[in-house]
Amino acid sequence: MAASVLFICGLTDKVLPKFVHISEEANMDGSFLFSCLLRDRLRITNTGTVLVCLQQNFQHYFNAGMRLGYNAKIFLDRILNVVDPLTDMAQKGMKSKWLRDERLITTYILNDICEYISETADQRVSTTIMIDNLAVLLNLGATKEEILQLCYQLVDLPKQYDNLSVITKISNCDLNEAIDNNLAKLSNAHIRVAPFKTPVSRVADGKLLIQREALYQKARQEDEQGRVQEIDDREKRIVCAEVMYKAHSRCVKIMFPCELEDHSDKNKCYVPPIFLVVCKPVYLSVGFPSNKSAVNPTFLPGVLYFSVI
Fold first, then answer.
1. What is the pLDDT of residue 251?
2. Which domains does the chain have, with CATH numbers?
3. For 231-245, how does the pLDDT look when each residue is reduced to its tens digit (9 = 90+)?
4. Rounded (5°) CA angle 6-249-3
5. With b meaning 16 or more CB within 10 Å and e meaning fewer, what string describes 259-281?
6. For labeling, which of 132, 248, 257, 271 is most exposed (least CB within 10 Å)?
7. Hey, is 46 helix, strand or coil?
């Protein structure tokens, strides 16, 4: 189930988009996304992960991982490095460096991250920096300007390391709009955890609003004489999706993926919903209907399409 969540979000590749931002609206919990992402990063060989624990200590991620079927502690100091200010403050009290000067909190985080990635980033297939959650820095005394400056510096890191990705999360994004909007504009993939506008549903906890960049390649093009030419023209488009989710203690259920729209100035791209029915056999074909209103649609390559027998 964790793989299906990341597949819908487009976060299943060995090297993730350069900057991924997760926004939580008030009274919503997107921790399951971080747990799924951490599990996916740890299962890939020769990858590195730097986890910055600001909202919970590392024990929380260990417990969540055990429910999802993996033990995060066996990866510690091997492919997983942890920056855990909460545990450090609990053990050292006022002697902790995180309580010395609130103006230096973001500097300490950046220095610890750079120390870890400078040693092993060049030797890894990919390295992922995960920060959960930026809103806690406000409680520790950091200003909005310092948080944004930290994120700008993190965005510059993938320019030094081609295989580096940064994932950030912020809670109460509707209350911290200044920070959230800036990070959303910086991101290559933005996931918003939002509630329903209607009353609370027992079927689903909320919805994921996904917006990410995708590269489309035009393989063929006709010239003025009508001759078909092979070209290599890759263009970047913004692809959006909306899905409902239900987070259980050991899995996450995705329901009724909706229409994907191309929000560029060109034609919209329609991908039909993907329905997974467990109680019946499922027929899998590669492609999607070129005409959603056609009785006998033709299938085009590139998308997984599920239909129930």
1. 79
2. 2-266 (3.40.50.300), 270-309 (no CATH)
3. 555 566 778 888 888
4. 15
5. ebbbeeeeeebebbebeeeeeee
6. 248
7. coil
